[in-house]
Amino acid sequence: MNVNEFIRLREKDWERLQFLIDTHKGRKSLNAAEVQELGTLYRAVTSDLALARRDYEGHRVGIFLNQLLTRAHSYIYQQEISDVRHFGRYFTHTIPQMFRETWVFTFVAFLLFFLPALLSFALSYNNPDVADNLGLGAMRDILAEKSTWTDIPVEERPYTSTYIMTNNIRVALMAFGGGVLLGLFSIWALASNGIHFGAVMGLAAHYGMGRTLLDFVFAHGVVELSIIFMSGGAGLQLGWALINPGLYSRRDAIAIAGRRAIALAVLAIPALVTAGLIEGFLSPSDAPFGLKVMVGLGTGTLLYSYLYFGGREP
Predict the structure, then answer these.
(1) Of 166, 187, 149, 188, which Cα lies nearest the Cα of 273?
(2) At how many degrees (to 10) do helices 184-206 and 137-144 cross?
(3) Share of the chain above pLDDT 90, in %
C-alpha cells in the first residue's frame, strides 16, 4: 500500500478526530458516545502515526498525524484549574483510578522491598554480626541490651512527629523521582530500605525484642510502607516509560507515565502526614498493643478501600 492509498483509507478517521476537537470547546460538551469515540480514534491515529513513521518516513503525512495527536493529547488531558469540582474529582476519582491502572508497578515495588527484607531478616536473625556490614552495629548493641530507641519523651513528640513526616516524605519522593534514572534509583531506594527494615526486625527477633519493636511499628507501619511501595511503583512507571515507550516518543511516553505516577505522589503527602502523626504520638505511647493493631489495620483498610472502590462509575 502506497502513501496515497494509506491516506484515502484512513483520512475519514483523522477528519472525525479533528471535528471532535474543533467543535467542542470543553470535555463536558462531549456526550458518552463521543467520549468513547474520541478514545477509539485517538488510539487508532496513534497506530497510524507509528505506521507512517515506519513505512513513509519523511512524508508530510507523518508531520500531520503528529500534530493532530499533539492537539488531541492536549485536549484530552487539559486541566480545568478554576473548576473546584474538577479538583475534588482528582482526589475522589483520578487517584484511585490511576492506582488500579498501574497496580502492577506497585506490586513490583513491594517485591523489591519485601524480598530483600526477608533475606536480611533471616541473615540478621541467625547471625547478628551481619549488622556490622550493614552499618547497623550500634542498633544491634542497643537491642542486645534489651533497649530500644523508640521511647520518645512526651514533650519531644510534636518535634519528632514533624521530623518523621519530613523524612518519610523525602524517602517517598526519592523513590518516585528516582524513576527518571531508568528506574534504577527507585530500585535501589526500595531494596536498600527493605534490607535495613528486615535486618532491624531480624535483630530485634534474635534478642527477644520483636514484640517491643512491633508495638512501635504496627500503628503507623501499614500506611507508611504502603505509600513507600506506591511511590516506588510510580518511579518504576517513569523508568519503564523511558525504557519501553511503545508507539510513543520517549517524551510523550514519559509525559503520560508522569501524569499517572504523579497521582500516587500527590496521595503520598497527606498519607505520610497521617502516618507521621501516628508515629510521633501513638506509636511511642503506652497505649495497649491491641489498640495499635486496630489503628494500623483500620488505617490500612481505609486506604485500600479508597484505592479499590474510589472513582468507580455506577
Answers:
(1) 166
(2) 20
(3) 23
Burial class (CB in 10 A: 0-12, 13-18, 19+), 93: middle
Considering only CA atoms, which of 19, 2, 76 is closest in space to residue 43? 76
At 53-83, the pLDDT tens digits run 888 887 888 888 888 888 888 777 765 544 5
Q: Which set of grid coordinates corresponds to residue 49?
A: 502515526
Structure pTM?
Answer: 0.68
Q: Contact 201/194 with Cβ under 8 angstroms?
A: no
Separation of alpha carbons 60 and 44, rounded Å: 18
3-state secondary structure of 93: helix
Whole-angstrom distance, CA of residue 190 vs CA of residue 172: 10
* Cβ(189)–Cβ(232) below 8 Å: yes
Amino acid (1-letter code) at residue 159 = Y
Residue 72, all three cell numbers = 488531541
Residue tagged 525484642 (cell numbers): 209
Rounded distance, CA 253 to CA 232, Å? Answer: 18
Taking phi over 0 as left and psi of -120 to 50 as alpha, with beta for the rest, 31 belongs to: beta
DSSP string, 120-162: HHHHHHH-TTHHHHTT-HHHHHHHHTT--S----GGGHHHHHH
DSSP assignment of 237-280 equals HHHHHHH--TTS-HHHHHHHHHHHHHHHHHHHHHHHHHHHHIII
Structure letter (DSSP) for residue 179: G
Condensed to tens digits (0 to 9), the pLDDT of residues 264-298 reads 878 888 888 888 888 888 888 889 999 999 999 99
Longest C-alpha distance within the chain, in Å? 81
